[in-house]
Specification:
- Helices cover 25% and strands 20% of the residues.
- The chain is an alpha+beta fold.
- It has a 7-stranded mixed beta sheet with strand order 8-9-10-1-11-21-12, sandwiched between helices.
- Helix 1 packs parallel to helix 13, helix 9 packs antiparallel against helix 11 and helix 15 runs antiparallel to helix 16.
- The relative contact order is 0.18.
């Protein structure tokens, strides 16, 4: 799925992010030790670097200032978090050697590896972690993760120990620790407002598996960070043992710099999708990312190529204003009828070129917390939708549907981002408008620039219905989107929902616990979501990339951002002799 990299486009995600940086990712069920170790007899990797074409350009490559997809791709390779994504939805140690959580689920303690280093040779310390979190909390910080750590306090104990204290226990907090850490020895004293212009953005110094050898507007060259310290002990495998997020993992021997199979990574940045596609077709690239689903599918159909489709966790949904001033949407039966009137299969084929999965719930179907039996899909059935509206007391006459007791037909204004900023959401809204019109409703589709769509309409409640993207994340904490308290200024409950019974289920679902306890809490929540039908789920877009068959190693898993595809980059290789 292609999204325009824009400062204002990100405002929608910031508003509807479900506390994106803090709780937008999961503490999934513990898994067995199935680390993606290298094949004991691997195919010899070519000496040349892996070359990927990216639509767009880097602006500032740091964990605090990354805004474009090119920025985020580079940050994922150059910087590290305390933990990182592992196989089968697990979390594995990264900068942290071990961690623990107290019985209340509110105090988390992380021990940083003794050998953790920045690419300039300086040690990674607890001060770096505290600096990063405090900068994200700084009132002057307006970057992509602004506000995401507001209910967390951080303190350091010595050089290697960092303690987080949570105002509310959160089952998904460990995934928040995948937040890439910034180097305090290079940024301390820099005002939050000055971060986007700091030289570090063009000369990144990270602690991740790859280091930046060169960076221009046209290209970036990355080399294995292990080559910066040739005396480091070679890695016995790129992935430490996967762990239960609530358990204290045993000490994990891990050298300071894991050695990837790839001799390097070269990114080439493009302004136009056709130019990028031509570079791929002519053999200049091993992969191409950021393309539209149609163009990506065309390239994947060429001999020796394939598409990697990573299930996403961003929900495209129809948001209905549930405030008392909008009685047309007050009934769950009516809301369910409106969902039944939408042909989601056709919507996905048109708006997403099939590069999405149908959403039957607000919980991604690829999440371990999804219970298909708790919230069965609402089938496309326009006849049933009309019948349900009649049963709810609506009447159909010339000019459209009338509410009970109304003298004039109802007109629904359906808002969406404009086509330039979010083509998929725009097309999805157009499809919803057509389907609702087909059952006799009078609907006007109003596309808006992102700033007006978010700040002037959604944030103020000045809308009837809207189609937009909601960042549910890998740990689907729906509390900020649906809880009654989140209707206040700055909250994400833009639909104005007030439901105390649902509030209790939202609190239970977001709390820490065993895998079994969390699954049960989410099942109960999904049953209530099905009964209330507060939001109309449409689709979860896939994040896709086209690669050549000579690229071996990438394994598909659920992602929150396209940059998450590099979770297993240490096992990637370029096969020789094929």
């Amino acid at each position: 799925m292609t999204r325009t990299d824009s400062l204002v486009v990100g405002a929608l995600v910031a508003l509807l992010a479900i506390l994106a940086g803090l709780v937008g990712v999961p503490a999934l069920a513990p898994v067995a030790s199935t680390s993606a170790e290298p094949d004991p007899t691997p195919v010899v990797s070519l000496a040349r670097p892996y070359r990927e074409g990216v639509l767009g350009h880097p602006m500032s490559v740091t964990p605090l200032t990354a805004r474009t997809q090119a920025d985020r791709d580079l940050v994922s390779l150059v910087y590290s978090g305390l933990v990182r994504n592992g196989p089968l939805g697990s979390l594995v140690p990264d900068l942290a050697a071990r961690w623990s959580v107290d019985d209340s689920g509110t105090v988390w303690t992380f021990e940083i590896r003794d050998d953790a280093q920045w690419h300039d040779g300086e040690p990674v310390t607890a001060d770096d972690v505290a600096f990063t979190v405090r900068m994200l909390q700084d009132p002057g910080y307006h970057g992509p993760a602004a506000g995401s750590w507001n209910e967390v306090t951080v303190e350091t104990v010595g050089l290697r120990t960092v303690i987080f204290r949570l105002a509310t226990p959160l089952g998904g907090f460990l995934q928040a620790a995948t937040q890439p850490i910034a180097p305090s020895h290079l940024l301390a004293g820099v005002p939050a407002e000055a971060l986007p212009d700091h030289p570090l953005g063009r000369q990144p110094v990270g602690s991740g598996p790859f280091a930046v050898a060169s960076l221009t507007d046209a290209s970036a060259e990355l080399i294995p960070a292990a080559t910066l310290n040739p005396t480091a002990t070679p890695s016995s495998g790129p992935f430490p043992r996967a762990t239960d997020s609530l358990a204290t993992p045993p000490p994990t021997p891990r050298p300071s710099r894991p050695i990837p199979y790839l001799s390097g990574i070269e990114f080439r940045f493009f302004d136009q999708p056709d130019t990028l596609a031509d570079a791929y077709r002519t053999g200049q690239l091993d992969a191409a990312s950021g393309l539209s689903p149609d163009l990506e599918r065309q390239l994947a159909s060429t001999p020796g190529s394939r598409s990697l489709r990573y299930p996403g966790s961003t929900l495209t949904a129809a948001l209905l204003n549930l405030r008392p001033g909008h009685p047309e949407f007050s009934s769950p039966a009516v809301r369910t009828a409106l969902l039944a009137a939408i042909d989601r299969r056709a919507l996905i084929a048109g708006a997403f070129a099939t590069a999405a999965g149908s959403a039957s719930s607000l919980i991604p179907p690829t999440s371990s917390l999804f219970d298909p039996s708790a919230d069965p899909p609402v089938p496309y059935d326009p006849d049933a939708a009309r019948a349900a509206l009649k049963k709810a007391g609506w009447t159909s006459a010339a000019g459209g549907w009338r509410l009970p007791g109304a003298k004039s037909p109802l007109t629904i204004e359906l808002l969406s981002p404009d086509e330039a900023s979010n083509p998929a959401a725009f097309a999805a809204a157009a499809a919803v408008a057509r389907d609702w019109t087909a059952i006799g409703l009078t609907v006007t589709h109003t596309p808006l620039p992102p700033a007006e769509f978010v700040t002037e309409r959604l944030a103020t409640g000045a809308f009837g219905a809207a189609v937009g993207d909601v960042t549910v994340g890998l740990d689907p904490d729906l509390y900020p989107l649906l809880a009654s308290s989140q209707t206040v200024t700055g909250g994400s409950n833009v639909i104005g929902l007030q439901d105390q019974a649902l509030d209790a289920l939202l609190v239970a679902a977001r709390g820490p616990g065993t895998a079994e306890a969390r699954e049960a809490a989410y099942s109960a929540l999904q049953k209530q979501l099905a009964n209330g039908r507060y939001v109309l789920p449409l689709a979860f877009a896939d994040e896709s990339i086209v690669v050549r068959d000579t690229v071996e190693g990438p394994a598909v898993r659920q992602v929150a951002d396209p940059a998450d595809r590099f979770w297993d980059v240490l096992t990637w290789r370029l096969a020789a002799g094929r």
